[in-house]
Specification:
five-stranded parallel sheet, four-stranded parallel sheet, 9 strands
Length: 244
């Protein structure tokens, strides 16, 4: 489940990545909508969002792009977006516009749980996925509040802290088992997943591996950011088990 920042380094590059991503490399694409104060994002993704904002990328541009190429994207498409952006546009209107553009789901990492109950009817009306983040520090009581509000999949953090590239992966199996006891929804694991080996390790326990910083970093060091992102995603996908 690769993550890319919408509009980094420009909106055309994002379109080239979305259209060029072979379905054998990824099942779902996570598209980050740029925000001035990224939630839990480390320096690589935060810098990419800052650059996208500096070039003038706004949610409307992201929706326009997705709408124009959605027919060419066989994978599921999920937006990562701050609740500030959702509320600024009007939550119901934002969700409806995202659905019309072609998004299959939303991740709103900083939304208040009480507010979730107000927006879930709109999410459900459009049959969209909706995921909240579950951290290693999440208590059992809070977990029991979060999981019933999720739709489609659970976003589990492999570690506390910020996103970023890490050389080692913590043991995620206890946390995955704890979540599986409470829900039948698939579990996607992110934060610090940086290599094909990490992907393989995650998929031995969970249902999806989310990789962002490694992909975004490869784009920043290349003269052809779209090709760099696709090459990195292809390499990461070698950690997936063979399909039947």
């Amino acid at each position: 489940m690769p993550f890319v920042t919408a509009g980094y380094p420009d909106i055309e590059t994002t379109g080239a990545i979305l259209s060029g991503l072979d379905p054998s490399w990824a099942d779902i694409i996570e598209l980050g909508i740029p925000f001035s104060d990224p939630i839990a994002d480390g320096p690589i993704i935060a810098a990419s969002m800052h650059e996208a904002l500096q070039t003038g990328v706004r949610p409307g541009h992201v929706f326009e792009l997705v709408r124009s190429i959605r027919a060419d994207i066989p994978q599921g498409l999920v937006a990562m977006v701050s609740t500030s952006i959702v509320e600024r546009s009007g939550a119901v209107g934002f969700i409806e516009e995202a659905a019309r553009a072609g998004f299959d789901g939303l991740i709103i990492p900083d939304v208040d749980l009480d507010r979730v109950d107000e927006i879930l009817p709109t999410i459900d009306a459009h049959e969209m996925a909706f995921s909240l983040l579950v951290a290693p520090s999440t208590t059992d009581a809070r977990l029991e509040s979060i999981l019933p509000r999720c739709r489609g999949f659970i976003y589990m953090l492999a570690r506390a802290g910020l996103t970023g590239i890490r050389s080692e992966l913590p043991d995620i199996s206890p946390q995955v088992e704890r979540i599986r006891r409470l829900t039948d929804l698939p579990i996607a694991v992110g934060f610090g997943i940086s290599s094909a080996e990490h992907v393989s390790t995650v998929l031995a326990h969970a249902d999806a591996a989310i990789v962002g910083s490694a992909i975004v970093r490869s784009m920043g060091t290349s003269d052809d950011p779209a090709a760099a992102a696709l090459d990195t995603i292809r390499a990461l996908s070698s950690g997936r088990p063979p399909t039947a």
